[in-house]
Design brief:
The protein has helices at about 15-35, 45-60, 65-70, 75-85, 95-105, 115-135, 145-195, 200-210, 215-230, 235-245, 250-265, 270-330; strands at about 5-10, 10. By secondary structure, it is mostly helical. It has a two-stranded antiparallel ribbon.
Length: about 325
Amino acid sequence: MEPHHPTLLGVDVLWVGTLLAGVAAFAVLLAIYAATTVRDPMARRVKALNDRREQLKAGITASTSKRRAKLVQKNETTDRIRSILQNLKVLQDSQVKVAQTKLLQAGIRSKEYAVAVIFGRLILPIVFGLPMLYLVYGTDMFATWSPLKQYGLVAGTFILGYKGPDLYLKNRIQKRSAAIRKGLPDALDLLVICAEAGLTVDTAFHRVSKELGKAYPELGDEFALTAIELGFLSDRRQAFENLATRVDLDAVKGVVTTMIQTEKYGTPLASALRVLSAEFRNERMMRAEEKAARLPAIMTVPLILFILPTLFVVILGPAACSINDAFLHGGH
């Protein structure tokens, strides 16, 4: 005779408990693995910075023909995609420049991927839209849906396929910009200290990128690249403008404007950066207070969906098991 296990709403309680225990054990092992395999966040970016340094060196020391040969990296796949788009008359210089700017803002240094982004807009609607078109109108899978719902599904698939690359880049840009915004006040404070200590601008940027590289890797990456460009570019203003282009933040554009004015007019750098740092700190505190004020409304949905059902199971579960056992024994 098999032992009788308690059930709740027809589900074996011991089986559910075993499953949840297994999930919890897996989560603990995953957390231990993540805690013991922490890597240097700047390690992967060192190669990109060294490549940029070598490109700037090549642009200074090489002749015009050799310079182009060094700076332009041949990529057979990208060249094939470019030729296909040019034959289809869909590759425009303005689109390429916009895509390259978005790639830089997303932290992707290779400008060749701009052609892949444009190609993705062309090919993804075909890859995902045509199969969905066949499933909706060529099979009976969605026969019970109304014509409006069927059309909405097909149209949504085509639109999502077209907007997919842009949505991916936009998501990366937002995450990267938020990480840079978070560490910008601390970076400006360090820049003030470096400026008052007598360091040059490029040395100050390099020092800040070294100090903040682990806490804010995205910001350290941008400052390190700016320090490299300040040391190699003949026009220092171009290095600051490149920083404003790579980071989609009004705060960074304000810092760049301040740096350019300081370079041009010789105004005190430390005092200007100190004012900006205080302003950015107040802005960061206001954003934190805004998130804290929204927290009760945001917690309402998890409270209803997850906490209250668990509470009901804990409170009413034993009573339901007792009532179920009483009915079973009463039936016998």
